[in-house]
């Protein structure tokens, strides 16, 4: 499990640890890890040109001490001081090691710029001098390694209300922060490298499943299992307007753990589903969970969906099905899978607002409708009514293709029917969906059906303990 802690939690853990260690120990641990990560990033140290952007706090201190270590190994290190309060001991150490103080003019010829402007003590945004330095790096194509996080992002929400650094690599300390996992800030981090510094942290409110977690959660058939005990999913999807959605969702569902899929919908669509998947049973019957809504268009039967929402079986509500959701009733076992536009409609706000504040709106909808919310997008945010959040960050942008959401709805519905609770079904489903997309895409385009076609292989790789880079 990858954990993302709040600034408050990190500060408390830092204070507790610092009280037991000689002064400066934590910063030295951070700076050592940072220097190693920077040298790995540029590939060589001797003769490398490194420019440090140094703000007024300990984030700048980390950059200065890392600069000192690189200078001792023969790098040319120049500190651009963005404040007259730059960490005095760090600056002295850099100068003794042969580094010097320079200006933004030095950025043009640098191999790497190190962003030590602000860390967890930062407010969103960049002051003019910092912004000018960052723009100089961008203009000259000099990659930026961010210390702890790209300066200017909102650390605890992942929002980027104004100017911020766009890093090629982020080196963080002790634990991940929320901005590393939630877009749009996560997209500004580049790959995130975690340096252990020994913090003892409480449970995190935001987590991200890793391969081993997915393996541990996946519902496996047992020796005595039959097709019913493995779980039966009822699928209400597709319409004369969008028959393909039913076929695609069925493909996603059958690639999940269920033993049987029942399809309920117009005869012509049922025929298309059974032409693609002869194993699908058409018509009502007992099910362990429902997946409702993909491609229903105008053929949504609101009364029927509300009846299912009020029944005991877990329900996944997607796309057009979301129109039947209201705030009444007990929705403990309901998982909704909107994209930003659909969540915006549910909450009565603009889509751009949801996109800019994804964590906030996913949590808000979970609480307001008493459901688990899976908010789709470049990073998938899954929020429970009690505020617990999981994030999936392993998707490729090639997954942004028509029908990909139908695959996800089928797969997550299948996991619900297989016995997972909505939070686990959503997070395991999002992980495997993205892993399948990575296999299908392999760096190029892939259709939704091709993604669905790779879910079984992605699952097999997870279960066989092979990390597919998902
Ligand atoms: N926690 C840990 O476990 C460890 C932490 N470590 C490191 O310490 C870092 C935190 O350091 P920190 O607390 O000194 O805060 P930091 O982020 O450097 O900001 C300082 C000052 O910046 C200012 N400022 C604010 N916003 C601004 C803006 N937008 N633009 C410009 N300036 C802005 C504001 O001052 P003001 O402007 O209010 O005078 C604020 O007080 C952490 O990220 C990590 O790198 C590691 O060394 C070891 C382990
Ligand atoms: N930029 C992106 N990077 C990675 N995954 C994405 C990106 N944009 C969308 N996705 C994923 O692609 C899928 C698209 O689903 P959706 O918007 O419902 O499409 P559709 O309705 O056509 O099926 C979701 O799983 C979403 O998380
Ligand atoms: K930073």
Automatic annotation (TrEMBL):
Its EC number is 4.2.1.136, 5.1.99.6. It holds the Pfam family Carb_kinase. AMP binds at residues 376-380, 405. Keywords: ATP-binding, Isomerase, Lyase, Metal-binding, Multifunctional enzyme, NAD, NADP, Nucleotide-binding, Potassium. It catalyses: (6R)-NADPHX = (6S)-NADPHX; (6R)-NADHX = (6S)-NADHX; (6S)-NADPHX + ADP = AMP + phosphate + NADPH + H(+); (6S)-NADHX + ADP = AMP + phosphate + NADH + H(+). Its cofactor is K(+); Mg(2+). Residues 10-205 form the YjeF N-terminal domain. Binds 1 potassium ion per subunit. Residues 210-462 form the YjeF C-terminal domain. (6S)-NADPHX binds at residues 58-62, 119-125, 148, 245, 295, 339, 406. K(+) binds at residues 59, 115, 151. The keyword Nucleotide-binding applies. Bifunctional enzyme that catalyzes the epimerization of the S- and R-forms of NAD(P)HX and the dehydration of the S-form of NAD(P)HX at the expense of ADP, which is converted to AMP. This allows the repair of both epimers of NAD(P)HX, a damaged form of NAD(P)H that is a result of enzymatic or heat-dependent hydration. Catalyzes the dehydration of the S-form of NAD(P)HX at the expense of ADP, which is converted to AMP. Together with NAD(P)HX epimerase, which catalyzes the epimerization of the S- and R-forms, the enzyme allows the repair of both epimers of NAD(P)HX, a damaged form of NAD(P)H that is a result of enzymatic or heat-dependent hydration. In the N-terminal section; belongs to the NnrE/AIBP family. Homotetramer. NCBIfam families: yjeF_cterm, yjeF_nterm. PANTHER family: ATP-DEPENDENT (S)-NAD(P)H-HYDRATE DEHYDRATASE, ATP-DEPENDENT (S)-NAD(P)H-HYDRATE DEHYDRATASE FAMILY MEMBER. This is Bifunctional NAD(P)H-hydrate repair enzyme. The lineage of its organism: Bacteria, Bacillati, Actinomycetota, Actinomycetes, Propionibacteriales. The gene is nnrD.
